[in-house]
Every structure is written in structure tokens, then in C-alpha cells.
Specification:
Length: 507
């Protein structure tokens, strides 16, 4: 085993160790994680919320026991593989051991540590972008058409994970026309590779067609509820924060791609990142959508700096270059991860507010970062629904209807009764069982709407009550109520079906 291999294994081991150490025991899973895990119980070629890849991973996690260890293992794995791909890219570019260590350090101590704490499509999305850029590098270096086919496969898998990877092509395709690599357009293998990619993603495209392209509705809803609060200046500012310790390396890559002779063949990467960021800005994308761009540029920058700092007194700057990402990670460690209790965060809220971490998707500041608040109150909700369910007559004929997918997913994940809560939001609208006649209804809804809920639903049941609510004041779901309706006077399935049709027609 070579020295380089031992060091690479050390970085990967440290990556896994850090990921598990950055999770505080005070927190549950985040709301999106429950939805993604529940998709394992409803395998399909597409979902309203995401493409199908995450559901396949969720199914594997389910087979492994659905434990927190395995839930957190896969995003950590994708992060470790990102380090590995950057390492191989540096080797392809002729980087020495210093370049390899610098690149791995920059990727390790970055926003990827935060991304990789959550079981969401984002971790694999970053890996997909990095792998596809690496394959392009290999093709531009060798002109071997096999890399076009491999690129099509990687793009397809990335597409089946998160449609965000389309932005990579948005930046790349016009960049081809600006460089000598436009000759690729005359290569028949390119079009066979495109055909291969289309074949691989076609099951998802067919699913989208058969379901009236819910992705379009999802994007419209996202634009209306979340992206309208996106500030383009904040988008650019946060790009600097994601890899704060690696800015010298990344900016060095931009210079090197334009003026460093060994990188002359890779100038397309400079135009690609520029056009991709412009596209993200135009569409007012969320800042983290662009994270997948940067790892490959860390590879370019590391190789360039290794060459620039290899002689004379400049060699003394090498440990400083490696130390900067680690030193800047220390203050980030104190604010960016769910490793501090909610009470600690509230007491030191100024530290979080300065970084804009208390601003939620509604554009307002709150007491905790949104992701952290989204990791509280779920076990409490599930335990209370569990207890209420056990107390009901004819409990097997009970519908558990929630306001949002987080509530439904958390109940299904934590409950001891193997309940199947549903919602009219996200993918759950397609998972409501209309074959069963329901006698009881457990309705999870905001307590603020208590009068409206009783007025709307009580006439259809003999008994109705507000049984309990989420009492954790730090939870985003604080105050969410658990309404109980028993003794159905009518078959409520017709009303449920009407609601589903209305939602889908709107979609």
C-alpha cells in the first residue's frame, strides 16, 4: 500500500468520523428525511418531490434496519466519494502529494460536512456534478469516446437523483462553442451517448408524462413559496461561505484555467462555471444548488498552487495553505451543525444571525436555523399519535391525515404501531388508501385553526376533540395540534377523493 493510498484512506476515515460527531443527540431527523425514507414503501419511477434514486437508497436502508447509523451513512459515503473523485482528478492533472492533501483538506473542511449530515438528494447531487466534471476532464485529456458514454451514464444517474444537474449542461453546452472543444459536436459518439442518457432517464420522463409533469407544478410552487424570497446578492455571498477555507484555491483555479499553460486544454471549465452561476442567478436558485460546482475547481487550484509553491521560500507556504481550511473550519464548527443544543443557539443567537442562518424560507428571522428547528418535535408528535390511536374504538379503521409531509413521515417512522399517516402534500397525496372505510380520523393540524377545523370536520363525526399538541417551543412544528374525530356519520372517502382531485387538478 502506497503512502498516497494510506493518506487517502485517512481522509475518508476522518470524513466518516466527523459526520457522525456533528450530530447532537437533542435532535431528531429533519422533515425531508422522513419523506425520503417513506418512499421506500412506495417504490416508483418518480415522485412529486424528487426523482426515484433516493427511494432506492431508502429501500437499502430499510433492508439494513432503518437505523440512524445507516440513514446517516449514505450521505457521508457520498461525501467521502466526492473527496475520492477530487483526489483522482488531481492525479490526472499531475498533482503531487501536496496538491492531493490540499485538495482533500479543502473538500473535507467545507459546506459538504453540513450537506452530508442530512439524508437528502443533495449529497449525491454534489457527487454527481463532481464525477461528471471529472469524466469531462478525462475526455478532454484523452479524446477517448468511452468517456462520453460513461458521462451519459453518470448524468442519467444524477438526473434520476435530482434534476438540478441539468444546470451543469446549461453552463457547459454554450461553453463548448467558446473553445476548441466545439469539435465534439462533430463526433457521432456524442449523439449515441446522448441517446444512451435519454434511454436511462426515460422511465422517469414517462412517469412525469403519465402524471401530468408534477415537476412543473413543484417548480411553480417552489418559486411562489420559497424562491421569491431568494436574494441574488445573498446567493453570491453564500457561495463564498460554502468553501470559505478554500477561496484561495478556487480563485487560483480561475486564474490557472485562463493563464496556466498546462491547463490550456481545460479552459472550457472557466466558461462553464461562469455561465452556470449566471443561470442560477437568473432563476433565483437557492444558494446550495450550486455547491456541486466547486470540488472540481479545488482540484485545478490545488495542482496550480502545488506548482507555484514548489521552489525556494514559497515552499514554506504549503503548510499554511493546508492549514487555512482547517483553521477557518473551527468557527464554522460552532455554528453550522446540529451539534449545539437549541438552548445554546438561542443564548448565542447573534453568532447565527450575522451569518443569516436564522432566516427561514419565509424571509424572516427565527430563534433557530430552519433545518435545526425542523429536527425537533417529531418524536413527540409520533408518540402522542401512537397513544391516541391505541385509545380509539375500531382503531384499525382510522385515517391519520396530516397537514404536511414532515408530520406524516415522522409518524410513520417513529410510531410503534406501524401506522400509515398521509397528507395532501408532496408524495403522500398519491399514497392515500381509498379502499378502506374509515370510522375515525386523527387530524394533525395547526392549533391556531382549531375553530375552523371543528367547524369543517365535526359535522361528519359523532365525537370531536383537540386531544394534544406539540409542546416543544423550539420546534418548527410547535403548537401543531392533534384533533380526534370518532364515529363517522358518512363515508368520508368521497370527501377525501374530492380533495385529492382538487389538488391534482390544480397541479
Amino acid at each position: 500500500m502506497t503512502k498516497k493510498t494510506i493518506i487517502l484512506i485517512g481522509f475518508i476515515g476522518l470524513k466518516f468520523l466527523l459526520q457522525y460527531s456533528l450530530l447532537g443527540s437533542e435532535y431528531d431527523l429533519q422533515r425531508d428525511e422522513y419523506l425520503h425514507l417513506d418512499q421506500a414503501n412506495h417504490l416508483a419511477w418518480g415522485y412529486i418531490s424528487v426523482p426515484p434514486f433516493t427511494s432506492w437508497t431508502s429501500y437499502i436502508i430499510q433492508l439494513l434496519g432503518n437505523s440512524i447509523f445507516w440513514i446517516k451513512f449514505f450521505p457521508a459515503l457520498y461525501g467521502a466519494l466526492t473527496i475520492f473523485v477530487v483526489w483522482k482528478a488531481i492525479e490526472e492533472l499531475g498533482g503531487n502529494l501536496f496538491a492531493l492533501i490540499l485538495g482533500a483538506t479543502c473538500v473535507l473542511f467545507s459546506a459538504l460536512l453540513r450537506i452530508n449530515t442530512l439524508y437528502q438528494p443533495n449529497s449525491f447531487d454534489v457527487l454527481s456534478w463532481t464525477a461528471l466534471y471529472f469524466i469531462l476532464l478525462k475526455y478532454f485529456k484523452t479524446d477517448d469516446s468511452k468517456w462520453l458514454y460513461l458521462g451519459a451514464i453518470v448524468f442519467a444517474i444524477g438526473f434520476l437523483n435530482k434534476y438540478n444537474i441539468v444546470f451543469l449542461l446549461v453552463g457547459l453546452l454554450p461553453s463548448l462553442l467558446l473553445t476548441e472543444h466545439r469539435k465534439i459536436l462533430l463526433n457521432p459518439s456524442l449523439y449515441f451517448a446522448i441517446l444512451l442518457g435519454l434511454v436511462l432517464i426515460s422511465p422517469n420522463l414517462i412517469w412525469q408524462y403519465n402524471n401530468n409533469f408534477p415537476v412543473i407544478h413543484h417548480l411553480k410552487e417552489l418559486a411562489q413559496t420559497q424562491l421569491e424570497n431568494v436574494n441574488r446578492f445573498d446567493f453570491l455571498k453564500n457561495q463564498l461561505l460554502f468553501f470559505a477555507g478554500s477561496l484561495i484555491v478556487i480563485f487560483s483555479s480561475f486564474y490557472a484555467l485562463l493563464f496556466y499553460k498546462p491547463f490550456q486544454n481545460y479552459r472550457i471549465f472557466f466558461f462553464s462555471i461562469t455561465l452556470t452561476l449566471i443561470a442560477f442567478l437568473y432563476f433565483k436558485a437557492k444558494d446550495y444548488y450550486a455547491i456541486g460546482i466547486y470540488p472540481i475547481y479545488i482540484a485545478f487550484g490545488s495542482v496550480f498552487l502545488a506548482d507555484a509553491l514548489k521552489d525556494g521560500w514559497k515552499k514554506f507556504l504549503q503548510p499554511i495553505a493546508i492549514g487555512i481550511p482547517l483553521l477557518l473550519f473551527i468557527p464554522i464548527y460552532n455554528v453550522a451543525f446540529p451539534n449545539k443544543s437549541p438552548e445554546y443557539i438561542i443564548k448565542h443567537s447573534d453568532n447565527y444571525k450575522k451569518l443569516g442562518m436564522l432566516r427561514w424560507e419565509d424571509g424572516k428571522d427565527h430563534s433557530l436555523p430552519q433545518d435545526f428547528a425542523d429536527m425537533l418535535g417529531w418524536k413527540e408528535l409520533a408518540q402522542k399519535v401512537d397513544g391516541i390511536y391505541l385509545s380509539l374504538p375500531n382503531k384499525k379503521n382510522t385515517l391519520i391525515l396530516c397537514d404536511n409531509y414532515g408530520q406524516a413521515g415522522a409518524i410513520n417512522f417513529y410510531t410503534s404501531q406501524k401506522l400509515q399517516a398521509v397528507s395532501f402534500s408532496a408524495d403522500y397525496i398519491d399514497w392515500i388508501d381509498l379502499t378502506k372505510k374509515y370510522e375515525n380520523l386523527i387530524r394533525v393540524k395547526e392549533v391556531q385553526e382549531v375553530n375552523a377545523e371543528f367547524q369543517e370536520t365535526s359535522p361528519f363525526f359523532i365525537n370531536s376533540t383537540l386531544a394534544d399538541s406539540i409542546t416543544n417551543q423550539n420546534a418548527r412544528e410547535f403548537g401543531t395540534g392533534i384533533f380526534v374525530f370518532t364515529g363517522a356519520k358518512i363515508d368520508i372517502r368521497e370527501r377525501i377523493k374530492d380533495e385529492i382531485d382538487e389538488k391534482k387538478n390544480y397541479r
